[in-house]
């Protein structure tokens, strides 16, 4: 399993190893209709063996439906689902090599922790003692050693989640499906479970498919993320690419915070697009940073993340370009401060002022600026994305 | 005192409700044959008389047979109806569920006469079997309501989880759904049993020559000599009802404690 999961996520070595892994789930042209409602509109997707894959999107985008078609709970209207090269057309959920962790955890309340975890072993030919040992081992793996005889209804949310994980993993499925597994936990617990899930996935080497509406969760845990809107995949990429270079304005809006300013395209060269944006002037945007606008947008726009630019002292010299403006709003978060800055001349094309949000880490010695003071904003063309 | 009026009202209400029942055992052990104060003396003669009465035993056997059969039938059918209505969407669901609930509001006398006419025109012999059918019909709405509540409170993914873990649809139902709706099933059995046991009109019309407990008691009221024995019978029935409810409540609470569910209140 170490060959499949060589090291920390988002390292080049890890990515290279992942790219070479054989496909575990192949989804070809999958459509799903509920009466008049078109839930999945032609999904094409390959999930690699040993990958931590996330389906991310707002509620109603079809991500849960897609997960349930992989699990076998939903029939597809057309298309093909292959798991480990096998067509799943006539394979019901109880015979698929997948197991699921449900959003509600679906812990059987009338059974003890051990009975819950061992539930899937009922048809296992092993002896009673061997099964009990397997249950103990599974509980230890999720950090619930010694909980076997507890009543399952007396468990906390985090413990239920662990029982659900142990119950699914004890069957050694080829794919573990997780339907919003962390949404019912409080923030602290959620962050802790994110890290534990990553470790667990690396330890067992099983392909994980996670459904979530929480972009942060997807970015933290996944090798790759498919962003879905209205039954279609809008972008499929690794977390960094998804965050830094969203291919459409809609994806950019869904993942994190992004500032948008209207832009005017002036010309195009072999490797860049020249634009003009209010407050920033003329900029050459590298072709790799050129993405699609949404159908509803009025004209092209440029976008940048709040942390891709920074406030600098007046007159500071550096490689970056500097725009000037006035601080409109200051929001202090302890570790971070958010500034809304109105750039000079940003009310350019249509006379509408658009403050941009700038995130500054509150490192030692850096003072929080006041509302109304003049500010210099340092930025570079490489951190801008053009949507046209 | 604050709320004194309401307190008095509550007391009078309870007295009116339960005092007549308290009179039952008093007269059942009274040696006088006339149901009136002052009491004459202590006797267990009426209980002995009741025990030795063959037609009463026959009525009791009939009633128990009918009540057990119709409560099991109504509960089984109720499980089907509740499962169908809470889990699946199908055309005509509303009207079908409405028709199942209809006997709840139909006058029983109408139901009885219509059943009698239909059964006679079909040439069916009247017997306790026909009473069982009639009682199943009127118990169905209660069973369906109780069981729908039980099925509705289940997380749908419990069943999916069992299926996902390798069970078949049927074994998933047996291993997960059935134990969790068991308190509802017990409530439904108990409710149907109680309704059937003291039902008079349908039993009167559909039993033919077979007596049931209510029709037998009614027939005996014409003979003043028999009334002390009826009091003794009433005493036994009250005690049995209390015992039955206690047992049912015990199982209901145990079921709730076992699954850690919130107690939403049962019969008691």
TrEMBL record, chain A:
GO cellular component, one term: ATP-binding cassette (ABC) transporter complex
Keywords: ATP-binding, Nucleotide-binding, Transport
Pfam families for this protein: ABC_tran, TOBE_2
Domain ABC transporter span(s) in chain numbering: 25-255
Keyword check for ATP-binding: yes
GO biological process, one term: putrescine transport
SUPFAM superfamilies, sorted: MOP-like, P-loop containing nucleoside triphosphate hydrolases
TM regions (residue ranges): none
Gene Ontology MF: a single term: ATP hydrolysis activity
UniProt name for this protein: ABC-type Fe3+/spermidine/putrescine transport system ATPase subunit
Organism: Paracoccus versutus
Automatic annotation (TrEMBL), chain B:
Domain of life: Bacteria
Subcellular localization(s) per the UniProt record: Cell membrane
Protein name per the record: ABC-type spermidine/putrescine transport system permease subunit II
Transmembrane helix listed as a keyword: yes
Family of the protein in this entry: Belongs to the binding-protein-dependent transport system permease family. CysTW subfamily.
Membrane-protein topology: Multi-pass membrane protein
Pfam families noted in UniProt: BPD_transp_1
Gene Ontology cellular component annotations, sorted alphabetically: plasma membrane
Gene Ontology biological process: transmembrane transport
Membrane spanning stretches: 12-39, 59-84, 96-122, 128-154, 175-207, 227-248
Keyword terms: Cell membrane, Membrane, Transmembrane, Transmembrane helix, Transport
Residues covered by the ABC transmembrane type-1 domain: 60-248
Lineage: Bacteria, Pseudomonadati, Pseudomonadota, Alphaproteobacteria, Rhodobacterales
CDD domains, A to Z: TM_PBP2
